[in-house]
Amino acid sequence: MSKLHHPISTLFFSHKPFLFVPASSLRNPRNFFNFTTNSTNNHSLVAAAQAQSPIAKKPPNLPGLENVMLEYMFGKKKATEVAHSVWKCVVQKGDAVIDATCGNGYDTLAMLNMVADKSQKGRVYALDLQDVALQNTRSLLDESLDDNERELVELFSTCHSKLEEVIPRNITVRLVAFNLGYLPGGDKTMITKSDTTLLGLEAAERVVAPGGLISLLVYVGHPGGREEFETVQAFASGLAVDKWSCCKLEMLNKPLAPIIVFLFKR
Ligand SMILES: C[S@@+](CC[C@H](N)C(=O)[O-])C[C@H]1O[C@@H](n2cnc3c(N)ncnc32)[C@H](O)[C@@H]1O
């Protein structure tokens, strides 16, 4: 089976979703997302890339993704839940990951739960420009984590365009996540901007390891949001196809809903 005919590829890349799904499969919606069939035929993006990846440690783990994707398409799950589910397929215990826009800390906490284990090797590097965001993240982490887990998160008051200045050199980064726009509950004029987002993406492209992921949620409902999405889309479209697999998920009849973008490094 070619990569483009695999269900996940059909979902992400086809202009006509489900075009390649056999009629018999339509009776069971779970078949749209059957990631765990015959391993010799399993050409999912995650499996293929992890097989080639120097940081691959174990077969792909796809806990709950098929249900989350279906519920997202049926309007029952949020973009953040899709993003977290995809991260879980890529991130492993002990990994280093970067939250490029930590905001209120919910993504940071989700990442920490993906990397933390008794080895104490996992790390989350969380960045934000606003002090209030870093305070909110710190409070959430302090109330949610024990001391050992809390040690695995480092917070930085800096722009994501400078992420290479704060993360340790020569670490293997599995995930860099950008949740763009303004801080929920905060100052709506303090938004991510196209120029620094682009610099942040270029830095993320350099630091993320093969088999890793750059994940973006792009909000287009505020001034500058659509332009920022165009910047993200142009960056993603220009990445070499032999090294990157890039896709977006967009709700067609909810024009202001966040657009999900995944840049998967092969
Ligand atoms: C949508 S919020 C992030 C939400 C967050 N991930 C969470 O789970 O709550 C966007 C955040 O990006 C931050 N931000 C804006 N420009 C930034 C930049 N250049 N570098 C880092 N963070 C930035 C804002 O301060 C804001 O807190």
Q: Which CATH first-tier class would you pick?
A: Alpha Beta
Q: What about the largest sheet?
A: 7 strands, mixed
CATH architecture classification: 3-Layer(aba) Sandwich
Please list the strands of the largest sheet in the order they lie side by side: 3-2-1-4-5-7-6
User: Order of SSEs, N→C?
Assistant: HHHHHEHEHHEHEHEHEE
End-to-end gap? 19 Å
Tally the helices. 11
Write down the CATH topology: Rossmann fold
Helix fraction by DSSP (H/I, runs of at least 4): 25-40%
How is the secondary structure organized here?
Layout: H1 7-13, H2 23-26, H3 45-52, H4 65-73, H5 79-90, E1 96-99, H6 106-115, E2 123-128, H7 131-144, H8 147-150, E3 153-157, H9 163-166, E4 173-179, H10 194-207, E5 208-218, H11 225-237, E6 244-249, E7 259-265
Parallel strand pairs: 1-2, 1-4, 2-3, 4-5
Antiparallel strand pairs: 5-7, 6-7
The structure holds S-adenosylmethionine.
